[in-house]
Every structure is written in C-alpha cells, then in structure tokens.
Amino acid sequence: MSYNLLKGKRGIITGALDENSIAWKVAEKAHEEGATFVLTNAPIAMRMGEIKKLAEKTNSEIIPADATIVEELTNLFIKSQEVLGGKIDFVLHSIGMSVNIRKNIPYTELNYDYFIKGIDVSAFSLHKMLSVAKKLDAISEWGSVVALTYMAAQRTYPFYTDMADIKAMLESITRSFGYHYGLDKKVRINTVSQSPTKTTAGSGIKGFGDFYDYADKIAPLGNASAEACADYCITLFSDLTKMVTMQNLYHDGGYSTTGISSIVMEQLGKS
Length: 271
Ligand SMILES: NC(=O)c1ccc[n+]([C@@H]2O[C@H](COP(=O)([O-])OP(=O)(O)OC[C@H]3O[C@@H](n4cnc5c(N)ncnc54)[C@H](O)[C@@H]3O)[C@@H](O)[C@H]2O)c1
Prior knowledge:
single chain; 271 residues; alpha/beta; seven-stranded parallel sheet; 10 helices; globular; binds nicotinamide-adenine-dinucleotide
C-alpha cells in the first residue's frame, strides 16, 4: 500500500547490488511512495545487469560512484541535481565492506591495511558524501540522510570483527555531522541499526546463518526483514519525522532490549 509519503521528493540511493540488498528494497518502496531518485554504486562492485533492472522498474538513472573517491561523489551530487531537476531531499548510505571479514581474519590479528580500507569504504564514505553535499549545498532544508548500521557498534559480536569498530565510527560521524548540518541547513542525519539480514554483505560473515536464527529467537517480533527496514527508512525520509536527527535507531524486532527469550531458554534447558 502506498501513502505518497515521498511525493515530489528527490533522492540518491547507494548500495543496491542485487534484489536482496536492503537498498534495493528502499528503492522499490521510495518509487511506490512517489519519489524520483538516482541509483549509485561503485563501478567495480556494480552488477550492471542487476542494477539496470531496478533502474528500469523505478524509472531511475544510474550514476556510478566509488564512495571513497571525493571527485566521484562530487560528480554524483552535481549530476543527480541535474537529472532530478533540483536539490536532493533524501540520501540512503547503504555501503559496507570489510576485507578482514571477507578473508576470515580474526579480530585480534587484523590486517591494518584492510582495516583502513574498511573504514574508508564503510565510514569515511558517509563523511565524504556529507562534506561534498554541504559544500555544493546540494541537500534541501529538512532533507534527510539515513545510513545503515549494526548493533555491534554497542555490544560485542566476535564474528563482526573490525566492522564493529567501523560502525561505531559511522554512528559517531552521524552525530557529529548531524550537529553541523542541522545547525547550518536543517539537514537531518540518522543511522538505522538493522537486524541481521540475508544479503551479500550479511551472508559474507562467518557463522551468519546461526546468528541469524539466534537473533530471530531472541527478538519478540523476530528479525526485521529488508522490506520492513525499507519501510522504516521511508518514514525517516518523509516529512513525518522532521525533528529526528543525530539518532541511532534500532530496527530489530526488539532484539536490542531483550536479555533472553523463553524460546532460547527452553532450547538451552533441553541440552
Ligand atoms: N545484512 C545485514 O545483516 C545488515 C545488518 C545491519 C546493517 N547492514 C548494513 O546495511 C548496509 C547495506 O548492506 P546489505 O546488507 O544490503 O548488503 P549488500 O552487499 O547488498 O550492500 C552493500 C553495498 O555496498 C556497496 N559498496 C561496497 N564498496 C563500495 C564503494 N567503494 N563505493 C560504493 N558502494 C560500495 C556494494 O557494492 C553493495 O551494493 C551496509 O552498511 C551493511 O553494513 C546490514
């Protein structure tokens, strides 16, 4: 069902790799809610065949940009305004990658070159996007930026290795930049802390399947799906959440505030 929540709004959506991507679902919902937007991803990571399908379905243009390269982000914001015909009202940062996780390197033995790469791709990229947008004055007043994060920024999840530290930085950038951009231009910036979700980035984490099931049994509402996450992002892009900024917002079916569930206790009792 559509509520026209984003009617007339212009956006930039990063990170739609394939139909499992959270960004893919956000693009579908934003289209349903009346938005026009540009899709973007790193040229090297982009699966052209896949993203073209989404572009056709949502009548969007694709503007490739590596989110670690300021020049490419500058081009992205300039071109997006040309294509969409005005300033940008919402931005989704849905970018995450850790070489240490990909290579199964344990947290206590991190490769620091990989660590820096992970920080650049997954946290600095938000700062770079915001800095470029602010310099170009590319985001409209009361515009909304949402970045996706995970609760390992607050609590320890051994398998999440360096991404835990990187997400903590992403959330900190959200607060710090949120202050300055809010004060100067009334632009709001929030992170959504999402349940484990079966995507390329999620499933690349060792033990993800077991953890997914565990989280599902702890959360009273179960794990939040990518579609539900997209719905939440849409509300944050809409005018109905105008005074929400600099927040880390849990979207996890109640997982983050549940100590233990009766389902897990029953299962432990059997062993
Ligand atoms: N899947 C989960 O369990 C989960 C849970 C909480 C938060 N998140 C976060 O959600 C976001 C989206 O991940 P997803 O789960 O949809 O997986 P995904 O693999 O579909 O998306 C990750 C995206 O990052 C893009 N990317 C990587 N390097 C880039 C670069 N240099 N420039 C531009 N884009 C680049 C990839 O191409 C991909 O599209 C990430 O920030 C992730 O950490 C995921």
